[in-house]
Amino acid sequence: MMAGEMLVTRLNLADPAQRDAADGFVMAHPQGTPFHRPAWLTGVERGTGNRAHMLAAVAPSGEIAGLLPLHHVRSALFGQALVSSGFAVDGGILASDPAAVPALAAACQGMARDGGIASVEIRGGPAPGEGWTLHEGSHVGFARPIAADDEAELLAVPRKHRAELRKALANGALRVEIGRDARHRRAHYRVYSESVRNLGTPVFPARLFREVLAAFGEDADILVVHEGERPVSAVLTLYHQGRVMPFWGGGIADARRLRSNELMYYRLMGHGRARGMRVFDFGRSRTGSGQAAWKRSFGFDPAPLSYHGWSATGERRDVNPDSPRHQRRIDLWKKLPLPVANLIGPFIARGLG
Asked: Which of 36, 72, 228, 329 is most buried as measured by Cβ atoms within 10 A of its Cβ?
């Protein structure tokens, strides 16, 4: 594919040289995220079955000038789309040359048309150009610097929430464990699956978490809070260029009483500091949600996020949990026994993207 003097090609992520070239570009780019990395693309593909693609804009010099990571997300319930990046809160076009942006956007549109794919969803990055719709106001992100030490971190939390955190710190029954092996994955899945069921959301396949951990290696781990031997809160975290990025986390019903989520994120900040991280990126939340309010009470200020969409037909797939058409399904899902939710949830969730 040619766009002016910019060649756009699909990289072969199974080729170590091409994979390393793409990863090097992402790691060197100031706007690069874990969701641009080949590790994310391949981990999600192996964990969900949604095929990964990496479009690269190549300058006349032969150097990569831009990347667009994509997943072809398919679902009998929700339709299909090219998503940058699938199962992520960020992604989009990553370019060192402005000319790469429209070239990659056009190539992506062509890929969708050729594949009979109804729409494209780009989460973050620069505006792709004409013909794309800007979607903003639905989500906000939260990030702030990690404090110099534990006491400074505690004082960075507003007073009311700090009092709750102190109660958790004083609870001798709570202990924290960090790792990547099978027992950490089991504890995380047990907690996370209950957490999302209680929110009315199908849980992702356990394989997704396993494959992402394997793909990222030491750049990902799991923190679990136990009450005695019972896991009560857990989070899978990514580490990228000085940023701690808790991604898949939650707590069981008792977490609120125990304040174990407060303890989990506070200890994760300290763990990130020990790893040399500088920023705690709390991820995105829906604007006006209880989750957004909870993050603000932890001392984080919201920043609006912008997404971009394109459709050959003008229609977008509807995967918004706030959509009226999904409310009855959500209410029913909350009532499912956890074993049933965990049995059928992954078949639905792998098509959400």
From this structure: 36
